[in-house]
């Protein structure tokens, strides 16, 4: 136990019977709002705040050992606080919990729980460490938060899968400030030549989460940049969620920008 943790005491917060399996409730310890979660006979406590944009985790649902933020769907491991899925990239703070004689006690932690706990099947805490994404973004790739900067006009070029992917790098995810190609959101590119020599471009694109609020903007901006390529007469953008996006689809460049090691 670190010195910082030793300075905090276990505080009774609830009776174990107050929560059923996968139940959660808000508790207050040392003026801090926490979400207390029960999974089976185990209890966990996290700061009741999503590190993406301050969503209340206590309003989310619990599945296995993950709690989902109700706002944009980011999931956190209740055992460690680790961010499991986008758009969250940083862990929320997990605290120590004990159950004695049917009483649940919580002790505030100020250091990460780097736990013991294995990752969820098929998931991994990809974002246990990160720098500020906004600070990491270069000037070229950093529109104002919450907005998509209009893509710059590109010079004309011939139509190929490489030129399509290159053009799509002008489309920036407004939550993460990384282009959609380096994020691994482009699953497929196909180019059909028409009888008039013009090209129809079709792309399969996914989102970092099904509830991604930037989806319509990303699709429209993709159509805009591809429609400006000389020789392209039509663009089709299909949104696909299978297979689901996972952080390991990101390029090294994207990881560098997000400060993920
Ligand atoms: S505020 Fe939680 S996912 Fe956006």
Can you offer a commentary on this structure?
The protein contains five helices and 14 strands. Helices cover 14% and strands 28% of the residues. Strand 5 and strand 6 form a beta hairpin. About 12% of the residues have low confidence. The chain is elongated and about 80 Å long. The protein has a six-stranded antiparallel beta sheet, with no helix packed on it. The chain is of the alpha+beta class and 261 residues long. The chain has two domains: 105 residues, 3-layer Sandwich (Rieske Iron-sulfur Protein); 126 residues, GMP Synthetase, Chain A, domain 3 (2-Layer Sandwich), CATH 3.30.300.130.
Q: Which labels suit this protein?
A:
GMP Synthetase, Chain A, domain 3, 2 domains, 5 helices, alpha+beta, single chain, Rieske Iron-sulfur Protein, six-stranded antiparallel β-sheet, 261 residues, binds FE2/S2 (inorganic) cluster, three-stranded antiparallel β-sheet, elongated
List the helices and strands and how they pair.
Layout: H1 3-6, E1 11-15, E2 24-29, E3 32-39, E4 42-47, E5 62-63, E6 66-68, E7 75-77, E8 94-100, E9 103-107, H2 133-136, H3 161-168, E10 172-173, E11 178-179, E12 186-193, E13 199-205, H4 215-227, E14 232-239, H5 252-258
Parallel strand pairs: 13-14
Antiparallel strand pairs: 1-9, 2-3, 3-4, 4-8, 5-6, 6-7, 8-9, 10-11, 12-13
FE2/S2 (inorganic) cluster binds at residues 50, 52-53, 55, 69, 71-74, 87-88.
């Amino acid at each position: 136990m670190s010195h910082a943790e030793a300075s905090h005491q276990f505080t009774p917060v609830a009776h174990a019977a107050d929560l059923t399996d996968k139940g959660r409730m808000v508790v207050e310890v040392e003026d801090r709002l926490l979400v207390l979660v029960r999974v089976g006979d185990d209890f966990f406590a996290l700061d009741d705040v999503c590190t993406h944009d301050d969503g209340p985790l206590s309003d989310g649902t619990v599945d296995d050992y993950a709690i989902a933020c109700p706002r944009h769907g980011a999931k956190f491991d209740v055992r460690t606080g680790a961010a499991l899925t986008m758009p969250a990239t940083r862990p929320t703070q997990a605290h120590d919990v004990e159950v004695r004689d049917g009483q649940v006690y919580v002790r505030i932690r100020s250091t990460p729980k780097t736990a013991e706990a294995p990752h969820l099947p098929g998931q991994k805490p990809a974002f246990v460490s990160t720098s500020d994404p906004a600070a990491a973004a270069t000037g070229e790739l950093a529109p104002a938060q919450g907005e998509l900067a209009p893509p710059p006009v590109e010079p004309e070029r011939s139509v190929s899968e490489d030129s399509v992917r290159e053009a799509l790098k002008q489309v920036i995810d407004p939550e993460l400030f990384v282009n959609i190609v380096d994020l691994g959101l482009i699953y497929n590119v196909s180019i059909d030549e028409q009888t008039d020599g013009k090209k129809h471009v079709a792309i399969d694109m996914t989102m970092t989460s099904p509830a991604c609020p930037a989806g319509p903007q990303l699709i429209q901006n993709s159509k805009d940049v591809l429609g400006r390529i000389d020789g392209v007469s039509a663009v089709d953008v299909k949104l696909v969620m299978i297979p689901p996006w996972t952080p390991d689809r990101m390029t090294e460049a994207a990881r560098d920008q997000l400060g993920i090691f």
